Amino acid sequence: MGGASMKSDSAKPAKPRKGAKPYERPRGGGAKPIADLMPQIGRTAFRRFGFVQSSIVTRWPEIVGAEHARVTAPESIRFPPGEKADGTLNLVVMPAHAPLIQHVVPDIIERVNRFFGYRAIQRVKIRQGAVQPPKDKGARPAAPPSLKPISMELGESLRDIGDPELRTVLESLARSMESAGNRTKN
């Protein structure tokens, strides 16, 4: 052991200097719009159901055209194990349109591959089923049932109620009574 000085293992930890701020982990920056986060959130769900790119679902009318998009919908894309090319596109088609779509499958394969930029799809499997038509971006959504007009007689009597919440509840009750009355008459 000779002349070497030994330090003990029980040395005291260094005290923070006066006026020094404690360490804070840097944050991720400012607030982000939810629209910027949605592709990241949806990406996991789309991959789970067989979509490498979620945009094939959201941009389906652009890929195959509006006519085919009304009667078809992409269900999933399955690739061979370990590969991201020569996959199978599973397509849901309205039953009456299945024979027509069967004839345009080569065009659909070409358009999807052009969209991806490489030979992602080699074949298409068709399953007949219900297809939700794509929503028009400019179309207004349908009014909820609570906004149906009520009869003039009930509307006049409810107009004088000052509490808006109470008026809304009573209008809803009036609508339900009118619709129940219409069902019993028919």
Going by CATH, the architecture of the domain at 38-128 would be 2-Layer Sandwich
The stretches of 5 or more residues where confidence is low (pLDDT under 50) are none
What is the fold named in CATH at topology level of the domain at 38-128?
Answer: GMP Synthetase, Chain A, domain 3
- C-alpha Rg, in Å? 31 Å
Strand content: 5-15%
Give the helix proportion (percent range): 40-55%
For the biggest sheet, the summary is: 3 strands, mixed
Mean pLDDT across all amino acids: 75
**Tally of DSSP helical segments:** 8
- Order of strands, main sheet, comes to 1-2-3
Describe the 3D structure.
There is one protein chain. This protein has helices at residues 34-48, 55-58, 60-64, 66-69, 98-103, 105-116, 152-158, 164-185; strands at residues 72-78, 87-93, 121-128. By secondary structure, the protein is of the alpha+beta class. The chain has a three-stranded mixed sheet with strand order 1-2-3. Strand 1 (72-78) and strand 2 form a beta hairpin. The protein starts with 33 loop residues before the first helix and ends with a helix.
